[in-house]
Amino acid sequence: MTTQDAMPPTSPTPSVAAGNGEQGQHDHGAENGHGHAKESLAALTIGSIGVVYGDIGTSPLYAMRESLHHYASHGSAIDPETVFGIVSLFIWALTLVVTVKYVTFIMRADNRGEGGTLTLMALAQRAMGRKATLPFLLGIVGAALFYGDSIITPAISVLSAVEGLKYVTPVFDPYIVWISVIILIGLFAVQSRGTGKVAAFFGPIMLVWFLTLGGLGLMHIGDDLSIFAAFNPWYSIKFLFGHGILGLLVLGSVFLSVTGAEALYADMGHFGKFPIRLAWLAIIFPSLTLCYLGQGAMILAHPETAKDPLYMMIPQSWGVWGLAPLVILATLATIIASQAVITGAYSLTQQAVRLGLLPRLEIRHTSETQLGQIYLPQVNRMLLIGVLALVLAFQTSSKLANAYGIAVTGAMLADTGLFFIVAWRVWNWRLPVVTLVVVPLLLIDLAFFGANALKIPDGAYLPLIFGAILVAIIWTWVRGTKIINDKSRKDSLPLADLLRMLEKSKPVRVPGAAVFLTSDPDTAPAALLHNLKHNKVLHKRNIMLTIRTAEVPRVPESEQLQIDELNEDFGRIIATLGYMETPRVPHILAVARRRGMNFDIMQTSFFLGRRSIKPSANSGMPMWQDNLFIFLSRTSLSPTDFFHIPSGRVVEMGSQVTV
Q1: For 176-318, where are the alpha helices, taking DSSP H only?
Q2: Topology of domain 39-475, per CATH?
Q3: Which of 42, 536, 564, 604 would you call most buried, defined as having the most Cβ atoms within 10 angstroms of its Cβ?
Q4: What 3-state DSSP class applies to 306?
Q5: In this predicted model, what pLDDT tens digit does every residue of 592-651 receive, in sequence order?
Q6: Nearest 5 degrees, angle CA 281-CA 267-CA 252?
Q7: What residue ranges do the domains of the chain occupy?
Q8: How far apart are the C-alpha atoms of 551 and 123, rounded to whole Å?
């Protein structure tokens, strides 16, 4: 764990436009400077279909099946009223949760074009202050539960697709789990090579998948045209209130149809709002609606197809040559859905590290042109272990469905709470208006959360346990870092006082420049004090460098650096970067030189502090939390690697501190 010189990446935010609703953005993609304008609307829309909608697009594989299974498992007969009610729940869940909540309202809350739970947290904290507890807790809980979703989605999606092989031929039945394991290991193994080339095929494949879903639905709607009664929301209400606990259990399975809706918001920065909204309204929503209507009509006409509605939509007369292509396409779709949540976990972790919520982790860029193409080895290993454990423990997608949903509903609840704060405090909507909009959305979220909570004894406890562990890690890291920084400030010497002391008693001077990294630009870095104490020398040129993280995804280069010449010997650079930007010290220094700061970058040494941390009974944290913080500190990436400093020019000065 480095000293304060290694700079915890959390810091106050510079003045940034808070935004108001759509923030005057041009949704065609040019709004956030990501180069969207260089791509056509069609390309962005198809790209969003591949990346954003993979999770929600694979739901027809299991959502209807699990809903009917929960109903029938309690000895209830599947009559037309039941089918109308369940299909109606699907249609209105897609309408209210996805179309109204995310597409209409939450996607308005962007931070310089970026979305996601941590983006909402940053906007809310900007309005309420960084020390506000509520947005911080909502943000870390939502982020932690997203990781739970990132583990379950690949497991249930790939398993549900591969299970279709047993309908092709029973020979595959004993090997379904192991085929799924091989596919998942291969998926995680290729992550280090980057997904840029493969991602180009994601959109077209998923477009074919959604058109196939819609086509299968159209093919079967004629089986029983009375299925159109499902558009009447009365059937949804009647089913829920007429079946008591059983209705809630089914609602928990219906929620599987909207898992992945949060990706619309989280991936907003990659494609822009308009392409994502266009893809949903023009292709995804109609295709999913047709598919669920078709499944319902088929079940009304042929009740035996309820055991696996999607695969049963292929007519028996088509045989293997009709079913096998659907299984292959479904497998490709689930791999793409898995890739989307894996990439989302990488991006979320990068944001969390830059915001100071997690220790520094190794972040590799897998593309020379696309900044968003990143790979985190530690996160990749964690996800792979979790996914394989779920597949081997649960064996079937039906059993995994019980564990699915609770993490997503929790994350959606967090989004709703943060949206309330943003609409009220950032956009200055009147409280009655905010209440009128948010309370119905909150009630829907609570209904889904309560329905999924009934599955806790059957496996839904797993993502909750995983989320709780991550919340504990984030809370420990933030709390421990604050304790360390507070102790450092008490023992520190103001930089202005040090400069006055050096004027009176000048040490031996050596040629070259020294760069000292520090989290507090007004305090003398510990590495500088150690260098003066032990080496009794001072370089001809000394630069204090502080890197801060803004609560916006990216900061324009013209606004990133504040350069101060303190005297002939000392200069100060305060660099402010967005939480989605990579801090590169050589680049920062090169920009500073172009702006007139005088030093020879080829004769520059970098001085970093390194702490040895010991647990203390009086730290303010329980001993287990002390030990956890120390463990996290030891796993943290060195500042040399994290800030991309040339390792051959780094000098580390050690110290010991208790926490």
Answers
A1: 176-189, 196-221, 233-242, 244-254, 262-266, 268-271, 273-279, 285-301, 309-312
A2: Amino acid/polyamine transporter I (1.20.1740)
A3: 604
A4: helix
A5: 888 888 877 788 888 887 777 776 666 677 888 888 888 888 888 778 888 888 877 888
A6: 70
A7: 39-475, 494-658
A8: 7
